[in-house]
Amino acid sequence: MHAISRRDTCKAIAAAVSSQVTRTMTAASPSQGKQMQLHFSLASALYGTMPLEVVLPEVHRAGAEVIDIWSAPHGDQREQIEKIGPNAFAALLSKDEVELGLFTCYPLGPFKLEDDMKLVQRLGGRMVLTGSGGPKDPAGESAKKEIQVFLEKMKPHAVTAEDAGLTIAIENHVGSLLSHPDSLRYFADFNRLPNLGVAFAPHHLHDHVAQIPDLIEHLGKNLVFFYAQEYGKGFTKKLPKDEEMMQLPGYGGGLDYRPVLAALSRIHYRGWIEILMHPTPRGIPILPTAKEITAAVNKSRKYLESCLPAK
User: Fold this and answer.
1) In 283-302, which positions are buried (b, 16+ CB within 10 angstroms) versus exposed (e)?
2) Which CATH fold topology does 3-306 show?
3) Are 246 and 230 within 8 A, CB to CB?
4) Which residues pair with 198 in a beta bridge?
5) Are 97 and 71 in contact (CB under 8 A)?
6) Nearest to 113 by CA among 135, 128, 133, 132
7) Average pLDDT over residues 245-271
């Protein structure tokens, strides 16, 4: 398939996608008696700055359904797309029969996503993901007030996302507005924007691990993306590789995923799960070769599947 036809196809797909696509994916009622199904996205950042031609073939090998394109400093695949152009990127997607799921756009923040939303729509993606920005870690009444202010500011951006058939996912991140458990609960209580939700990050709740299942249930349909990453021994300074890898599920980091997945099952979560870790320094691959990285992802994926609640 040529790039131009891929582009036209992607346009048609994006035009057909409404806000209900992601909502249905995240909150559809499961079939009676069936085990929860896990749907994975693959983070390009795991591969550092490896070329798109190397990363894209790993999507299906890693058991993922879509690619999540990251930008610097975590990876540079977004910058690679800028260099080669969207048509050439669409041709690469077509060549490897890979679907774009989302762009992770941390440098842009929540109020400067319009250009990337247009590109994601053009390429057939369904989501853009970023952080909330400040203030830093509000709790209690301060969190309540600041979340309400944030949601008001997000209204026009959520409308833009709705028009493009996309969802904006905001990660809970230490040092930001959406950080403390109170802020997550107030987000769920006050959010009335169907195309705005939370990218739930357990590794940023390492001081509140016992609350994670309850937070998942409280968020309900507001939870539109899930990071399978844990704190382990930390990710802000250089560690021996075996300790750094403890951020990944199934590598001994200590997070019990059984109650976590049980909570996701109770809210009928059908969104993407992204197996992730942060190397130090940022922007390097988590392991030397793409083959090794994909093998690590598959180990974590199989571990997560073993933690699923019984039928």
Assistant:
1) eebbbeebeebbebbebbbe
2) TIM Barrel (3.20.20)
3) yes
4) 170, 223
5) no
6) 128
7) 97
Cα separation, 12 vs 275, whole angstroms: 30
Region for 281 from its dihedrals, namely left if φ exceeds 0, alpha if ψ lies in -120 to 50, beta otherwise: beta
The closest alpha carbon to 124, from 65, 165, 77, 75, belongs to 165
Question: How many beta carbons lie within 10 A of that of residue 40, not counting itself?
Answer: 22
Which of 67, 156, 68, 142 is CA-nearest to residue 110?
156
Q: What is the mean pLDDT of residues 156-176?
A: 98
Tell me, what's the pLDDT at 33?
54
3-state helix, strand, coil in the chain (%, to 5): 50, 15, 40
Rounded to whole angstroms, the Cα distance separating 91 from 97 reads 10
In this predicted structure, the answer to whether residue 31 has a pLDDT above a threshold of 60 is: no
Q: Tell me which H or E stretch contains 200.
A: strand 196-200
Contacts for 243 with CB less than 8 Å, ≥ 6 apart: 232, 233
* Cα→Cα distances 164→82, 88, 154, 270, 271, Å: 20, 22, 15, 21, 19
- What is the mean predicted confidence (pLDDT) over 203-218? 97
